[in-house]
Amino acid sequence: MEEDLISKKELLDLTGISYGQLYRWKRKQLIPESWFIRKSTYTGQETFFPKERMLGRIQHILSKKDDLSLDELAGKLSDMSSVHKQLLTIKEVRERNIVSSVTLERYGQCDKDEHKYSFEQLIHLVAVDLLLGKGELSLEEADLLHRTLSVNRTQFEGKRWELFFARKMGVSFFLQAPAPSELVFDEGVRLISRITLEDLTEQLQGKLG
């Protein structure tokens, strides 16, 4: 099962950035070269990108490019270790707009002002919020997702993982697996979304700045 990709044309149309900006950011190492994936299509060779990671990175660059030079931004983006050490209070989660108020009120520990969210807890909130924001799951399904991630937290702590969200005959289910995974579903299963820990970390890093 291949990672969810987005073509270069779709990316430029969706984000509004230019071809020149895209490749200037690549030269400045704001976007890893490994994210430029050449694939054969019926029209010839085209460039694709890991969709969620690329959209998160571009959102981050656009939000910071007026405050930092491209070299300064490249330095911050290369330092992923700081993201993993983050501990945020609920006030800081709100102020930095890490997730929507709906997600925070439903899944955050809003009655505990002193509670500090770890990297794993923040990632779980971002995962739920990302899929809710896309309109891909109901609140009941979001409850199941958050519960699944919380139950598996210890098992996957410090490891790379992927999350699969699928439906079969109207029944939803989530599957969290070590990354990279090569899962094969039967033909009755419709895969709604596939997200990696790297995708979610990219989204979180963009919010942390």
Could you explain the architecture of this structure?
- The protein is 48% helix and 20% strand.
- It has helices at 8-15, 19-27, 51-64, 70-78, 81-84, 90-95, 101-107, 119-133, 139-151, 153-156, 197-208; strands spanning 5-7, 37-41, 44-50, 88-89, 116-117, 161-168, 171-178, 190-196.
- Strand 2 and strand 3 (44-50) form a beta hairpin.
- Helix 3 packs parallel to helix 11 (197-208), helix 7 (101-107) packs across helix 8 and helix 8 runs antiparallel to helix 9 (139-151).
- 24% of the residues are buried.
- The mean pLDDT is 89.
What key phrases describe this protein's structure?
single chain, 209 residues, alpha+beta, 3-stranded antiparallel beta sheet, 11 helices, 8 strands, 20% strand, globular
